[in-house]
Amino acid sequence: MFTGIVQGIAIVDEISAVPGLSTFSIRFPENQAHNVTIGASVSIDGTCLTVTRQEGQNLYFDAMQETLRLTTLGKLKPGDRINFERAARIGDEIGGHLLSGHVHTTADIVAIDRPENNCTIEFEVPQAWARYIFPKGYIAINGASLTIGDVNDNRFNVHLIPETLRATTFADMTVGDRVNIEIDSQTQTIVDTLARMGYDRPPS
Fold first, then answer.
1. Could you tell me which CATH number the domain at 105-196 has?
2. How far apart are CA 66 and CA 181, in angstroms?
3. N or C: lower Cβ tally within 10 Å for the chain?
4. How far apart are alpha carbons 68 and 77 in whole angstroms?
């Protein structure tokens, strides 16, 4: 499990691909790769991957074809920056909301507004996932736990403070970029339960 509090930014050093599988060598900031065990889970842009090897500050991860297809990892290239979070431990503070690291879908950035000391990013999700997105609800975008702002049909926005921009890759993003989305599990459960009872969410 993860908390959605991004611990830092790492850099993709190398990607090697064989049929159906890609191996990522990702360079972590100094001291952030200490005490990582083989088999540990790490969130890479919101996608839970397993550490397969370590060489100094570089951790290695394998991603299957299905993972590459369903997430943005298949578009990564050497030099790209990614958000990371190591798995939460019992007793850790849950500063965001509980995440599984299982990406539900992707979203496209359709607008960015950057007034002084603020940043608002608007996203568009596939219509099928819009039913789980509510104003002031939780959502994870590239592994970061964020509060949803305004919602209009299958579009929504988030408002980012300077600290979030400093600690994540959101400051790098431009219109047209694609991000990983994990829907809040409690929201999904409630919406699906109400739908089975005949109380489906009305159209926006």
1. 2.40.30.20
2. 16
3. C
4. 13
User: Is residue 26 a contact partner of residue 10, using CB atoms and an 8 Å limit?
Assistant: yes
Q: Is residue 178 scored above 60 in pLDDT?
A: yes
Cα separation values, 141 from 21, 31, 47, 82, 196, Å: 24, 25, 10, 12, 27
Give burial (CB, 10 Å; 0-12/13-18/19+) of 40.
middle
What confidence category does residue 79 fall into, taking pLDDT thresholds of 50, 70 and 90? very high
Whether the model pTM is above 0.85: yes
Same fold, 8-86 and 105-196: yes
Q: Per-residue pLDDT tens for 134-158?
A: 999 999 999 999 999 999 999 999 9
Ordered by start, the domain boundaries in the chain are: 8-86, 105-196
Identify the CATH number of the domain defined by range 8-86: 2.40.30.20
Return the residue matching tokens 């370590």: 54
